[in-house]
């Protein structure tokens, strides 16, 4: 059960606590959910509403009087345009966290010629649509798109898919091993220090719930398969 679900259940039995300001918000949630860790509290774009983020990345909005809180995305309407402010913040966070992963920790298929765009893909070796997307990688590379793979074995740490990714990452030729594995070819079992578990956990933090999950340089998340042609158009490289 998610932390916020636990809070919702507990809040039904917790007394209303009047507060205003960051310190009071911390005290309020400490009483409701002592184990909850808050990473940030700040005023939102709506007067009287605070944005509270937990250490797991979950976000809620709370009234300054402490009697109510809600979960979900916050949108703004400017003329005829609707902007998802919450997704914009998530995108910035994704971009920052992805940029903290060094090239040495990824399996990178470099662009041919000048690099026009970079994408990071959370992938599962045994996922059908991940394999289908891998067939589009040569076309993306020709367009000038660098493709970096991050591990997201959906069956979890220690699963068969996890072990396959470890073997590919530990191979002398990571690119060839990844391609073979995604083509259903058995690759030698390898073990070494690797980032597979940490990348799986990173994907969970970034909101990845399935594979493939494509993250653009600006942090936008595109779930699922997309052809090289459509992805190239979305990246503006065509």
What does this structure look like?
This protein has 9 helices and 11 strands. The chain is globular and about 60 Å long. The strands form 3 sheets. Strands 7-9-8-10-11 form a 5-stranded mixed β-sheet, sandwiched between helices. Strands 1-2-3-4 form a 4-stranded antiparallel β-sheet, with helices on one face. The chain has 2 domains: 3-75, Roll (Nuclear Transport Factor 2, Chain: A); 99-235, Glutaredoxin. It has 238 residues and is α+β, with helices and mostly antiparallel strands. A hairpin with a 4-residue loop joins strand 10 and strand 11 (221-223).
Largest sheet: 5 strands, mixed
CATH architecture of the largest domain: 3-Layer(aba) Sandwich
What is the oligomeric state here? single chain
* Secondary-structure element series: HHEEEEEEHEEHHEHHHEEH
Counting H and I runs of at least 4 residues, what is the number of helices?
Answer: 9
**CATH-defined fold name of the largest domain:** Glutaredoxin
- What is the residue-averaged pLDDT? 86
How many DSSP-defined strands? 11
Using the coordinates above, name the CATH class of the largest domain.
Alpha Beta
Instruction: Please give the domain count.
Output: 2
Characteristics:
22% strand; alpha+beta; Glutaredoxin; 238 residues; single chain; five-stranded mixed β-sheet; four-stranded antiparallel β-sheet; Nuclear Transport Factor 2, Chain: A
What is this structure, in a nutshell?
By secondary structure, this protein is of the alpha+beta class. The protein is built from nine helices and eleven strands.
